[in-house]
Amino acid sequence: MRLAFAFSVYYYLMPRDVASLVDTLAEIVGPRHVRTALPERVTYAKDGLPTHRRVPGVVVLPGSRDEVIAVVRLLGALGMPFVPRGAGTGLSGGALADGDAVLIVLTRLNRILKIDARNRLAVVEPGVVNVRLSVAAAPHGLQYTPDPSSQTACTIGGNVAENAGGPHCLKYGVTATHVLALEVALADGRVVELGSPGGEPWGPDLVGLFVGSEGNFGVATRIAVRLLPVARAVRTLLADFTSLRTAGEAVSAVIASGIVPAALEMMDQSCIQAVEDSVYAAGYPRDAAAVLLAELDGAHEAAVAADAETIEAVLRAHGARSVLVAADAQQREKLWLGRKKAFGAMGRLSRDLVVQDAVVPRSTLPDVLETIARIAAEYGLTVSNVFHAGDGNLHPNISFDGRTPGLRERVEAASAEIMATCIAAGGTITGEHGIGLDKLRYMPLLFDGDSLAAMRAVRHVWDPEERVNPGKVVPVHACREWAGTRNAERGTRNESPDVRSDFRVPTSALET
Amino acid sequence: MTDRGGFAALDPCVHCGFCLQACPTFLATGDEADSPRGRIELMRAIEAGELSPDDPALVLHLDRCLGCRGCEPVCPSGVGYGRGLAAARALITSRRGVPPLARAALAALTGPGLSRVVYALARALRATGIPRWLAGWGRMRFAMGMLGATAPKVGGGRWRSVKVGGGSPPRNLHHPPPTSTTSPVLLFRGCVMQGLFSHVHDATIRTLEVNGYAVREVPEQVCCGALHEHAGLERDARALARLNVAAFGDGDEPIVVNSAGCGAMLKEYGHLLDPDAVGFAARVKDVTELLAVRGPRPGAPVDATVAYDPPCHLLHAQRIAEPPEQVLRAIPVLRLVKTPDAAQCCGSAGLFTLLEPAMSRAVLAPKLETLAETRPQVVATGNPGCLMQLGAGLAAAGIPAVARHPVELLDESYAAAGYYA
Predict the structure, then answer these.
(1) Which CATH number fits domain A350-484: 3.90.70.10, 3.30.70.2740, 3.30.70.1130, 3.40.50.300?
(2) Inter-chain contact B14–A35, Cβ cutoff 8 Å?
(3) pTM of the complete model
(4) ipTM of the predicted assembly exceeds 0.85
């Protein structure tokens, strides 16, 4: 009812230029690809973190690069804010648009424009689904390496916006490492090319600046990415542990061995149950407190086998109850599928879910995991952990039933406390999901006013009017948040009065 | 706690979006409103009363759902999309009624009196060979192609039964084979299957008998109600379900179905009539399930390249993947080819092909492209709608292949082996 009312208000108060905006958009992309009806706009009100909900004013689905540029140019001329969106699998509310903004959905720009096997690169449109590029490159023995868990659904444009990670980014680096060049439509519709065919920056590294800008700097219309050879030799190990702490300690031991695994992932018991109850059941031991999924890869069978043996020995020496080595490609795929679909399986635990994203120094994992468990117990909430352990990139999933009165507030409070714990441990508030809407409130915990102002100044270079994805990433609109920051020494983190933590609050990472 | 019906099945959705790429309509439009996740938002909104079930924009996108349930087997949380959709459609229909075209099609295809006349006329028209000749794109010509595709032995002679090993007759000609015991099964005949595909029923009976089943008829049976449920006529579907449960009695004989759509519906009776029909639903078996249990017995070689195209209501709704392939592999020489998008819906989806022709053809198009590259002689699929949709599509696209039910191919192999002599 509330929505219907909002719509009627929207409709009758819709200014004339919005009506003509819709007509002009329809002229550019065709009437079928402009969505104004409330039910249609409602379907775009969430991303993969459904606790945030914003109904966009207009949804437009351009079908080509030229249409995107024409749309952006039009919105620039009208001074209208807009938000680019891929598949909407993001996890920070980053691809949501308010009622006064236009949502530009890029799913129809899904062509792979070029695969250059000799030079190991591909040029794609932003709406290409991540895994489809690897499938297309497979006949050449190549792959697009960053593999977010949502890779069967998420788009490369979205990956660029969020600087997406994934299990195999431990060894191979996150999206930024793999983007060579970009064509970007700026806020006013001007089109610029960033980067170079070889990937070396000609001048300042603007590609590096754009990747991870969360849609604040413009719309990527073409993306050149690096392709890497598919590893010839692979070993996948599944180690299980009877305590979360032991598993956390084993992670540091693996890294200390000097071998960099392709991937090193952890899942706790609650997550294992959800996966094992699903169609993606991988055979993880249900009675384990946690499992580690480790992968070794390389060009030489014997070398990878030797590394795998070393890692297996390290895992056993550090408390693994058993270590399973995947017998064949089929079992390996099963072990990975379980891990990658784990987030989606959380609906088995409860109808509502909040996933958090934070990075902590690897050595603090055992303590942080125990603290998170304590926070969950204090708030009476179910927290499941499934994360990139090798990077120290945590994803606590809080399951709850939003219909229970007062529970949402409790979940928010627990989330905040978990974040504060991670910051206090010397970590940061996002590893790969981005700040979006969800993490705005934590930014002042991490950055002082000068740092936030610097971020805002960089943004103004690209988008002086703050029309592209407004209200995200840098908390500029809420003065309270600004007031909360302390103009401490540059680079030092801010202490928050409501941080309760067992950890010493560290000073800057730049401290010598 | 109020009874939320099918809507409760949507609760596990956490909006992860892992279903998006499994949805044929999302792939066709790229629009979240045409995706499972977007439609779940719409269903939740009408349950919560936030959107009206007769809002035209909402109805448009729920009508455009094929109901293929391709999203269900990929969902990590096991969301019961199909059940939610049935509940939402029932709510929509209670508000806006059934659109005239859908009502006419329902009456013509499932109405006890009218459908007999319609099918008789259709068969007469089919016998003239005109439909096949007219087959093409466009609403009328596609419909003609669909009718043409129902003919037994259409375009026969493109593939042949061959005898290998010097043409000596296959051994073991007696049936039923001495190794198996004869078990009784009851045949579900359905509407379209009975009206236009009675030759598939004949093939079903014969091939089952060779594999040690004795097929019994159940005269009082009625339409399964699947098309009624898709149209949101839940009460009608429930009434038909009650009649069928009564007709098939309390025995424990398996109920054999050769239409994936009917099979999926009959297996849903447990939920529809909860708890009265749980036993009935457990007895329902696809013909290929029963055949696969017995091997099935190999027949004579058939020299044909066959692409198996699993019906959504078999693969996704009933989760039956292996048995049809097992049936086809029981035919010596036959080359079974796999196309990468076989598991994708063909766009038939019951009345969908008639009611939403544009979306239906858009969903069919990529499949036809793959088939044009693969060049099979036969596309095998176990559902009347898919047989008609694929048959019409192949004819319209000028691909020299025909659509056949897997048991038809097995039947032909058995006939050549002399099992029916």
Answers:
(1) 3.30.70.2740
(2) no
(3) 0.91
(4) yes
